[in-house]
């Protein structure tokens, strides 16, 4: 199957200079693209001069992760897209085991490799670790990472297994499945758009897997760090929008009511920690969510999933009240 590795860039010359060489070195079986989100720095001129084998896609505006990839991928014809953050170092043989799996499994529509921390390579990385799940209140977590607790990689997840969502930091996806699901939801702009897409892919009968025999190292926070209130805003708002869009029936309203309470507690926690900007970001996220409901009603009607909603117990209670900090401790 023909493969395209697509790196979304916005004013990221330093990241391209640091991380693109490993992608070129270890991706001989793929065509490498840099999709530029209307950068104002010299990153594209630099890439064209220093890495002439890399093809450039020029987007007309900075539409964030969602629109940026939708615009870039619309022009490509490869069978498999690999959406790779610009701050990821890849390793030898990172592509072939997953591409081989796509070739031999018709219902496999998306996948991710093992994501380790570039700064501390013995540990998993926050963004995707060893594959993503959500609990029954819609909180995302990963094998190898629950909230702020990140596990050391000791081979405990060197398997191939079905997951609920694959990280957008290194997302393998079939082109035909991406098109059928109508790509990323551009109203999300950035953060949790991959969870929304993976939900739709599965509701259409696809399977998403993690492959522990492929490894990459992710710097993380290169575009928007965890200390930035904008990240708090997008994570809280988009989580609510994804739930409203995808959860079928009256269950969604019970979930959203619970989330209002728990998000309020999270806001108070930020307030007590003196993080006023993050406190404010949560309330802004809820206001923005309410303002988007009318626009998301048609999407809900079209995309609400009839697949069984995940029955994973509340991750918040298990983590904070029962001290279950690792994936294998969860019920």
What report would you give on this structure?
This protein has helices at 13-25, 43-50, 64-73, 96-104, 175-180, 193-203, 229-246, 251-272, 276-303, 315-320; strands at 3-9, 31-37, 55-59, 80-84, 88-90, 108-117, 132-134, 140-142, 145-146, 149-150, 160-162, 170-174, 207-218. The protein is of the alpha/beta class and 331 residues long. The protein has two domains: 3-218, Spore Coat Polysaccharide Biosynthesis Protein SpsA, Chain A, CATH 3.90.550; 229-329, no CATH class. Strands 1, 2, 3, 4, 5, 6, 11, 12 and 13 form a nine-stranded mixed sheet that branches. Strands 7-8 form a two-stranded antiparallel sheet. A hairpin with a 5-residue loop joins strand 7 (132-134) and strand 8 (140-142). Helix 7 (229-246) packs antiparallel against helix 8 (251-272), helix 7 runs parallel beside helix 9 and helix 8 runs antiparallel to helix 9 (276-303). It is globular, with a radius of gyration of 19 Å. The mean pLDDT is 95.
């Amino acid at each position: 199957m023909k493969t395209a590795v697509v790196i979304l860039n916005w004013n990221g010359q330093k990241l391209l200079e640091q991380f693109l060489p490993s992608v070129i070195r270890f991706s001989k079986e793929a065509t490498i693209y840099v999709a530029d989100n209307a950068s104002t720095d010299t990153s594209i001129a630099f890439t064209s001069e220093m890495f002439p084998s890399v093809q450039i896609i020029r987007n007309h505006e900075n539409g964030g992760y969602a629109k940026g990839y939708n615009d870039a991928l619309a022009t490509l014809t490869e069978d498999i897209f690999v959406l790779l953050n610009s701050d990821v170092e890849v390793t030898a043989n990172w592509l072939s085991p997953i591409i081989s799996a796509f070739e031999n499994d018709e219902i496999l529509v998306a996948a991710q490799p093992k994501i380790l921390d570039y700064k501390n390579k013995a540990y998993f990385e926050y963004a995707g670790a060893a594959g993503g799940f959500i609990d029954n209140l819609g909180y995302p977590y990963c094998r190898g990472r629950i909230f702020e607790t990140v596990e050391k990689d000791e081979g405990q997840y060197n398997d191939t297994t079905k997951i609920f969502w694959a990280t957008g930091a290194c997302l393998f996806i079939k082109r035909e499945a991406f098109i059928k699901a109508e790509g990323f939801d551009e109203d999300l702009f950035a953060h949790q758009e991959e969870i929304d897409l993976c939900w739709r892919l599965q509701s259409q009968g696809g399977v998403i897997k993690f492959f522990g025999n492929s490894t990459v190292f992710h710097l993380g926070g290169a575009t928007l760090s965890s200390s930035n209130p904008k990240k708090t805003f997008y994570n809280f708002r988009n989580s609510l929008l994804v739930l409203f869009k995808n959860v079928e029936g009256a269950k969604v309203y019970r979930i959203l009511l619970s989330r209002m309470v728990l998000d309020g507690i999270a806001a108070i926690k930020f307030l007590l920690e003196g993080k006023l900007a993050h406190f404010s970001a949560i309330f802004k996220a809820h206001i923005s969510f309410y303002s988007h409901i009318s626009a998301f009603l048609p999407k809900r009607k079209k995309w609400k999933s009839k697949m069984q909603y995940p029955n994973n117990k509340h991750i918040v209670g298990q983590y904070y009240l029962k001290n279950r900090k690792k994936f294998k401790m969860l019920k």
